[in-house]
Design goal:
This protein is of the alpha/beta class. The protein contains 17 helices and 12 strands. The strands form 2 sheets. It has a 9-stranded mixed β-sheet with strand order 1-2-6-5-4-3-7-8-9, with helices on both faces. α13 links the parallel β8 (251-255) and β9. α1 packs across α6 and α8 (126-139) runs parallel beside α9 (154-164). The chain is globular and about 65 Å long. 43% of the residues are buried.
Length: 366
C-alpha cells in the first residue's frame, strides 16, 4: 500500500485538520508521511497549528480508518486524487478553499482546455431543458467539458445533453461515491463514467445531507472557466454557485427568462445586477471568453527547442509535459522563474506564436 497516500488520508481523517491546514502542514513538512514524523515542537511552529491539532497529529489513530478507506476505493474502482497529484484539477487548485482530496471514478482528464459549468433549478421547465440542449449542441465545436451537480432539473438535463452530444461531462456529488443521489440518476451516472467522471470530496458512506451541497457547489464553480445559470429562482443553490463563481473571478452567464415565470427571477436578477453576462447563444460565451472553435487543437506542434533561450525552453517543456492548461503561479513554481519575469517571457512566447493565453491566467502550447 502506498505509504504517502495512506498518510495523506490519515491526516485528512484527523479531527481538527481541515483542507487548508492539511495543505499547510504537508507543504511545510514536504510530504504527508513526513508530517507524522515531525516532532510536535516543530509542528507547533507551522502557522495555523495549535496545541490541539499538533496533539491530534502526534497521537491520533486514523491510520486504520485510512487503510479501510483505501481498500474500499480499490474494491469500488475509485481513484483518490490528492492535492499534490498532477491529475488534480489545476483550476480548482487555484482556489484557497479547494478540497485536499477528491474521490474520482471515470476516465476523463480533469485538465482540459475548456470547461463549462451548467447549473439551475431542480424544477426545470421545458424552456430550461431546451436551452440546456442548445447550449451543449453549440459547445460541440469547442469540445468543452460540461460540469454539473447530478441533481434533478437543469443539472441532470446538462449531463444528459452532454452525453447525447458526445461531450465529456463530470458530476460533482454532495455524497459519498457509493451513495448516488438522487437514486433515479444511477443509470445516467453509470454512462457518465464512460464519457466523463463522477467526483466528490466526501468519504464513502456520506449521505446527501443539506450542508454538503453548498460545499459541492464551490467545486463546480472552481473547476469551470465559465458558469452558465439556466433557470433559477430568486434564492437557491444555483445562485449560491453563481456567487461563489464570481468570488473566484470566474465568468458567469445567465440565460434570460420569462418575466412572469418564478424560475426566471434568479437569472434575470443576475443579469440586472451585473453579476452575470447575458447568454443568448454561444457567441456571447466566445466573445467574453475569447474562445474560438478553430483553436481547440489537441495536437501540439513539434518545436525546435534550440531556437529558444534556457528559460523559454523550461516553460515549453513544462507545458508540453502537462499537455493541458497550466496556471501562471504553477508555472512560476515549477520553473523557479519569478512571476514578473515569467509574465514577460510568456508574452514573448505568445508573440512567437508558441504559447496561447487562456482565461484565469492559464497558458497552454498552441
Amino acid at each position: 500500500m502506498d505509504q504517502e497516500r495512506l498518510s495523506f488520508l490519515a491526516l485528512h481523517f484527523t479531527p481538527g485538520i481541515g483542507d487548508f491546514l492539511l495543505k499547510q502542514v504537508v507543504s511545510y513538512c514536504g510530504s504527508a508521511e513526513q508530517v507524522f514524523k515531525t516532532p510536535k515542537g516543530k509542528l507547533l511552529k507551522i502557522p495555523g497549528v495549535g496545541e490541539v491539532s499538533a496533539e491530534a497529529i502526534k497521537h491520533g489513530n486514523t491510520f486504520q480508518q485510512a487503510e479501510k478507506e483505501l481498500k474500499k476505493a480499490e474494491r469500488e474502482e475509485v481513484e483518490l486524487i490528492l492535492y499534490t497529484d498532477k491529475k488534480y484539477p489545476v483550476r480548482l487548485k487555484a482556489i484557497e478553499d479547494a478540497p485536499a482530496l477528491l474521490y474520482y471514478k471515470g476516465n476523463q482528464n480533469l485538465n482540459v482546455p475548456k470547461a463549462v459549468g451548467i447549473v439551475g433549478t431542480r424544477q426545470a421547465t421545458e424552456y430550461g431543458k431546451e436551452m440546456v440542449e442548445r447550449i451543449c449542441q453549440e459547445l460541440v465545436p469547442h469540445h468543452a467539458l460540461i460540469i454539473s451537480g447530478l441533481a434533478y432539473g437543469i443539472d441532470i438535463a446538462a449531463h444528459k445533453a452532454a452525453l447525447k452530444n458526445n461531450l465529456p461531462t463530470i458530476g460533482v456529488m454532495g455524497s459519498g461515491m457509493d451513495v448516488i443521489y438522487p437514486a433515479a440518476h444511477k443509470e445516467t451516472a453509470k454512462k457518465m463514467q464512460n464519457l466523463g467522471a463522477l467526483i466528490t470530496e466526501n468519504r464513502f458512506g456520506t449521505k446527501p445531507d443539506a450542508h454538503n451541497f453548498p460545499a459541492r457547489n464551490r467545486i463546480i464553480a472552481g473547476m469551470c472557466d465559465a458558469l452558465i445559470v439556466v433557470e433559477a429562482a430568486e434564492k437557491g443553490g444555483a445562485l449560491i454557485t453563481a456567487d461563489i463563481a464570481n468570488s473566484y473571478n470566474k465568468d458567469v452567464f445567465a440565460v434570460p427568462g420569462n418575466l412572469i415565470q418564478s424560475y426566471s427571477e434568479g437569472c434575470n436578477k443576475l443579469i440586472k445586477t451585473n453579476r452575470a453576462n447575458l447568454y443568448s447563444s454561444v457567441k456571447d460565451l466566445e466573445y467574453i471568453m475569447n474562445w474560438s472553435a478553430e483553436t481547440t487543437a489537441v495536437a501540439q506542434p513539434v518545436l525546435d527547442l534550440s531556437a529558444f533561450d534556457v528559460d523559454e525552453q523550461t516553460v515549453i517543456r513544462i507545458l508540453k509535459e502537462r499537455n493541458a492548461p497550466v496556471m501562471i503561479d504553477e508555472l512560476s513554481f515549477k520553473s523557479s522563474i519569478s512571476p514578473s519575469k515569467l509574465a514577460s517571457l510568456l508574452l514573448t512566447l505568445e508573440f512567437k506564436n508558441v504559447v496561447k493565453s487562456l482565461p484565469g491566467k492559464m497558458f497552454t502550447l498552441k
